[in-house]
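Structure in, sequence out. Go:
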């Protein structure tokens, strides 16, 4: 009699565990965890007094994902999409190089709530630094300067 009741308990628990394992990947894509979007706009004029005719070189990555490197020119825009991991620890940073100027910038940090409840994190790169605004269509006045450039020390 004891064996029968134990089997009766194990079968439903096993079915629930298997169902959860099958559904987990689908739950990750549900609207409860929408894709985040990081946009980067190069607003550095091609003809400028600081670094004339130098493209902006960008290399973005997270702990698990390397998005590769690319070159940007004035008014080029690049964006990438991702979902915040189940632990809420997703972090993306980009290495920016512009002639002898460079800067590593954390462009998304889930733990700091960088974009608040918004899906879009927007960055504008200018000759004097890095500006941030959240939201799908921020106005120019929404962007706030976060960081300046650092000079590379060349040996």
């Amino acid at each position: 009699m004891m064996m029968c009741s134990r089997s009766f308990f194990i079968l439903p628990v096993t079915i629930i565990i298997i169902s959860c394992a099958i559904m987990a990947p689908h739950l990750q894509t549900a609207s409860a965890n929408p894709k985040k979007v990081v946009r980067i706009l190069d607003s550095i004029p091609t003809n400028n007094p600081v670094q004339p005719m130098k493209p902006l070189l960008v290399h973005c990555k997270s702990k698990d994902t390397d998005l590769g490197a690319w070159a940007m020119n004035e008014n080029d825009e690049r964006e990438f999409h991702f979902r915040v991991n189940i632990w809420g620890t997703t972090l993306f940073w980009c290495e920016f190089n512009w002639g002898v100027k460079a800067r590593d910038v954390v462009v998304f940090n889930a733990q700091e709530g960088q974009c608040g409840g918004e899906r879009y994190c927007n960055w504008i790169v200018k000759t004097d630094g890095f500006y941030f605004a959240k939201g799908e269509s921020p106005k120019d006045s929404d962007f706030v300067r976060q960081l300046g450039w650092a000079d590379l020390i060349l040996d």
